[in-house]
Write a structure and sequence with these properties.
2% strand, 2 strands, mainly alpha, 250 residues
Length: 250
């Protein structure tokens, strides 16, 4: 330094501080200690930065988990918040009524009960079709009008009920490669169709007359068509099963 120059105190390096008698250990790595500087700016000295950024060990996490489990076991204060919104009064009353009546609250449980009840109803309906029990018959077969129509049809011989066996016989005859037999099969077709039409017309008039006499004030819509459809079925295959014998008055 030349004579006459001013000394800049900010550039003077302070003497080195004496080394402490205590030796630095491996755990002091990353330490930084903040000490005040002479110029008013804080000086940084190493501190244990590893303690700040390192992840917690299992031993440190264990007490937190234990405290959480203990808090979950303790009873909740009635005045403390529930952590969920309070249900409406109507919803709460509906849930209480379902619980008291035994109604299912789960959708899957409700569907399971519905399938079970449907299975039971179908079993009862099959039994009713075989026995003629009016309580479990389908809606199309219920009522005194429909029962009378069934008995009226079942008590008579109808040509239409023999249509299926006759059709099979005529079909076999038409396959035979003989001109005379094929002509006979065609005549049989025409004869069967004409007889079924005539018998159905006579049945329609007689059935309608009986219905008007016995059920004057009862709705009879579809009853005649119901009887005609029953005549097309063979007696053994009819459902509900016939409850009267042939020739017996209904």
């Amino acid at each position: 330094m030349k004579v006459g120059e001013s000394v800049d105190n900010s550039r003077i390096v302070p003497p080195a501080t004496p080394v402490s008698s205590r030796s630095h250990t491996a755990g002091d790595a990353g330490r930084c200690r903040i000490v005040p500087g002479r110029s008013g700016v804080a000086a940084i000295d190493p501190v244990l930065l590893g303690l700040v950024f390192r992840s917690r060990s299992k031993e440190e996490k264990a007490p937190t988990d234990k405290v959480t489990a203990d808090l979950s076991k303790t009873s909740r204060d009635p005045q403390a918040p529930k952590g969920r919104p309070t249900p409406k009064r109507s919803d709460a009353q509906t849930q209480r009524r379902r619980a008291s009546s035994g109604a299912p609250t789960d959708r899957k449980e409700a569907m399971k009960r519905q399938r079970e009840s449907r299975r039971v109803d179908m079993a009862k309906q099959r039994e009713a079709l075989a026995s003629g029990d009016e309580r479990y018959l389908p809606a199309r077969d219920k009522g005194p009008v429909r029962r009378f129509v069934r008995d009226f049809v079942d008590s008579r011989f109808c040509i239409a009920e023999f249509f299926l066996p006759l059709a099979v016989i005529i079909l076999i005859l038409s396959v035979i490669q003989v001109q005379g037999i094929q002509n006979i099969s065609l005549l049989l077709w025409l004869g069967v169709i004409v007889l079924i039409v005539v018998d159905s017309i006579g049945l329609t008039f007689r059935l309608r007359k009986q219905l008007n006499e016995r059920f004057p004030d009862t709705p009879k819509r579809g009853a005649v068509a119901y009887g005609l459809m029953r005549t097309l079925q063979m007696r053994r295959l009819r459902l509900p099963k016939p409850q009267v014998k042939r020739g017996e008055r209904p």
